[in-house]
Specification:
There is one protein chain. This protein has about 210 residues and is an alpha/beta fold. Helix content is about 50%, strand content about 15%. Helix 5 packs across helix 6.
Length: about 210
């Protein structure tokens, strides 16, 4: 262990703390996982999914990528959604972005960063879709925050339109998709008032938003 010894020390202290409050926690956790929620969030290290919502390991199934993007050709993300919905039977999928997102900022500025520019192209497309609304916002921070919110809403739409979620709804499975935004400045979540519970609702809501 030539490097990162401090992380192993932290791990031992963390495991001991858990065992002191829940002596059987790890034994029970090792037998199965039965999370009720799937969290699709940003890779940003300042946005720790479990801690934000006060859940222990095993209670939240998590997928993270730069700028919490859901793309229909991303088989990593789709595989996570399929496993969560079809195998684990989660009832809630949460797409959670965060204000001040570096990926969204880079897309808004049309920065040239390398390979990731291709990934952030998806967010540039969202900007173009809502350009009139965004260009009317003169304050740069407010514009960034709004694009962060619009990005979450678009990704909720993408989740709803996956074959996985559509099939789950068609067979009557109880499943809701939510859009949230997290503030790093105060640690609080914001509900973006996007909660989709069936295919008809998804179609109606997103057609209305497109008007």
């Amino acid at each position: 262990m030539r490097r990162l010894k401090s992380l192993f020390d932290n791990n031992r202290r963390w495991a001991e703390k858990i065992k002191q409050s829940h002596p059987e926690f790890f034994q029970e956790l090792s037998k199965q996982q039965s999370p009720k929620y799937l969290w699709i969030g940003c890779s940003d290290s300042r946005v720790p999914a479990n801690e934000i919502v006060g859940l222990l390991p095993g209670e939240l199934f998590v997928h993270r990528n730069v700028a919490n993007v859901v793309v229909h050709t991303d088989f990593n993300c789709l595989s996570v959604i399929e496993y969560a919905v079809d195998v684990l039977g989660v009832r809630d999928v949460i797409v959670c972005g965060h204000y001040g997102c570096g990926g969204v900022r880079a897309a808004l500025a049309n920065s040239q960063l390398g390979l990731i520019d291709n990934w952030l192209r998806h967010i540039r497309d969202i900007y173009k879709k809502h350009q009139a609304q965004l260009d009317a916002i003169k304050d740069d921070q407010m514009k960034l925050d709004r694009l962060c919110e619009l990005n979450v809403i678009e990704q909720v739409n993408n989740v709803c339109n996956t074959t996985i979620v559509q099939k789950a709804w068609s067979r009557g499975q109880e499943l809701s998709v939510h859009g949230w935004a997290y503030s790093i400045e105060d640690g609080l979540l914001k509900d973006l008032n996007v909660c989709i519970t069936n295919a008809d609702e998804a179609l109606a809501i997103f057609e209305k938003r497109a008007e």
